[in-house]
Each structure stands twice: as structure tokens, then as C-alpha cells.
Backbone:
């Protein structure tokens, strides 16, 4: 009798341990992602409030500084090599001065297709990309204008945040938005391509064009290449905004990895229950022999 009770208790303990491990494994990315999302939302909200409180003259000054920065960046075009000319060095020094005046948060990117909003910081360090999106150095600030090319990068996904996890779902004609200095700029996707990390030819400024490229690693969790989602400036109005919402991906696509986890643990639990039933049956038969 004691042996039978011990078998039952052991089986239930194993079941509960596996169940709670599975539950915690499943809930961790959801909870941490939600916390990170709240943090990013707060940063964006604080940025909008800061812009609302700012006097128009100060906002105009920031826009002018951003335009000057972009002019300096254009002067640096083609200087990604190790050799830097005196003119390029002077432009880089001016860029650094302008960045100090503009502030830490440059604005934020809103991508309705994949239901994400990320604050934009300057740089691509691990610390910056753990908090949101980063503006690639020596590329244009997110304020638009002729002969500009803003390059924004973000992780393909972290255990604690989705970031650009679903960027591979972007399609040609999708529209996303840049928000900076109380202005909203709309960009329509014109190409989605995958390149080697060393291929930066698609990031160059094109004379007279207003471009934005979103970058993330590809394939997911392998990160041997880079995915480039390139877009050109288009008119912003409420119709464009509404249309962009209609192209949003299905929640089933967005959270498919969580569905796989649910199915896996459901099968695992059923398997454990099956084993428990077999053990109980065998124990019962042994006790009656």
C-alpha cells in the first residue's frame, strides 16, 4: 500500500514540476516583453510631452540643427573608409556638436504592419539596442528632407522584447512613420532585401530622394546576414494612417512561436499523464498478483 502511495505521489510531483517549469518558460518572454513595452511606451510618452511643452522657437531650433546635421552627413557620404579627408574630419566634428544639442531621444518609429513603436537613439551599441532602435552613425536624422537617408537598426528580437522580430513580415507598399519634433513623416516600403553585413551599398544617400532603411539581423537567431527594409517619403494624412492599420499582420503570425510552445507543453503534459496512467495500472496489477 505504501509503495502504491509513493508511486502516486512521485508521479504527481513530476507532473507538477514539469507543469510549472513549462508555465514559467512560457510566461517569462510574455511578462518581460510586456515590461519592456511599457518602458518604451513611457519613453515615447515622455518625448511627446517634452515636445508639447517646448516653445515653438525651441522646436524650430532643433529642426534647424537636425537639418544642419544632415547636411554635414551628406558631406561625409562615401567616407566610410578608414581614410578621412580634412573636410570630412571637420564635418564629423560639427556632427558631434549638433548631436549634443539635439538630445538623447531623436524621435520614434511607428510600424503599424508589425504593431511596434520604438524610441530612436543615436548609435548602435548593445546598451542602446537593448532599449530601442538605434540611428546608424553617419546617416541622416529622422526629420526628412531631400538627399537624406536615415538608417534605423534594431535587434531581431530579445528574450525581453520583440523589437524588429517581425520585420520579415514587411511588404512592398507598407507604410511606416517617423515622429520627431512634433512632426510625423510617412514612408512607403519600396524594397525588402537580405545582404551580407559588409554590403552597405544600399545605405547611400541618393541625390534628391528622402529615404529610410530599417535594418535587423537575418535569419532569426542565426544573424549571418542583414535584412534591409527600404522606403521612400510619401504624403502623410489620415487616409494613409488608416490604410496602414488595415495591413497589420495577424496575431497568429505575430505570436506563432508562443503557440508552438503551448502545443509542445500540451503534448508533453499528455505524455506524462499517459506514463502516469501506465504506472498506476502496472502498480495496481502487481498489488493484486
Residues:
Amino acid at each position: 500500500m505504501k509503495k502504491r502511495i509513493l508511486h502516486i505521489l512521485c508521479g504527481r510531483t513530476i507532473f507538477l514540476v514539469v507543469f510549472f517549469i513549462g508555465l514559467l518558460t512560457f510566461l517569462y518572454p510574455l511578462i518581460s516583453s510586456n515590461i519592456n513595452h511599457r518602458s518604451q511606451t513611457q519613453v515615447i510618452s515622455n518625448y511627446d510631452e517634452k515636445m508639447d511643452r517646448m516653445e515653438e522657437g525651441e522646436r524650430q531650433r532643433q529642426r534647424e540643427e537636425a537639418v544642419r546635421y544632415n547636411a554635414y552627413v551628406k558631406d561625409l557620404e562615401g567616407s566610410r573608409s578608414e581614410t578621412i579627408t580634412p573636410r570630412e574630419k571637420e564635418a564629423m566634428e560639427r556632427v558631434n556638436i549638433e548631436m549634443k544639442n539635439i538630445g538623447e531621444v531623436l524621435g520614434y518609429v511607428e510600424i503599424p504592419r508589425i504593431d511596434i513603436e520604438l524610441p530612436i537613439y543615436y548609435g548602435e551599441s548593445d546598451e542602446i539596442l537593448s532599449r530601442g532602435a538605434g540611428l546608424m552613425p553617419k546617416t541622416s536624422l529622422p526629420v526628412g528632407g531631400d538627399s537624406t537617408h536615415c538608417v534605423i537598426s534594431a535587434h531581431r528580437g530579445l528574450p525581453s522584447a520583440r523589437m524588429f522580430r517581425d520585420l520579415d513580415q514587411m511588404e512592398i507598399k507598407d507604410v511606416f512613420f517617423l515622429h520627431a519634433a512634433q512632426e510625423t513623416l510617412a514612408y512607403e516600403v519600396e524594397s525588402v532585401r537580405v545582404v551580407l553585413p559588409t554590403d552597405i551599398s544600399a545605405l547611400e544617400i541618393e541625390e534628391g530622394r528622402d529615404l529610410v532603411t530599417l535594418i535587423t539581423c537575418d535569419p532569426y537567431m542565426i544573424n549571418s546576414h542583414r535584412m534591409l527594409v527600404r522606403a521612400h517619403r510619401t504624403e502623410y494624412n489620415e487616409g494613409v494612417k488608416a490604410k496602414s492599420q488595415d495591413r497589420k499582420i495577424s496575431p497568429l503570425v505575430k505570436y506563432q512561436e508562443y503557440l508552438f510552445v503551448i502545443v509542445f507543453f500540451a503534448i508533453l503534459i499528455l505524455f506524462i499523464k499517459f506514463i502516469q496512467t501506465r504506472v498506476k495500472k502496472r502498480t495496481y496489477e502487481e498489488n493484486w498478483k
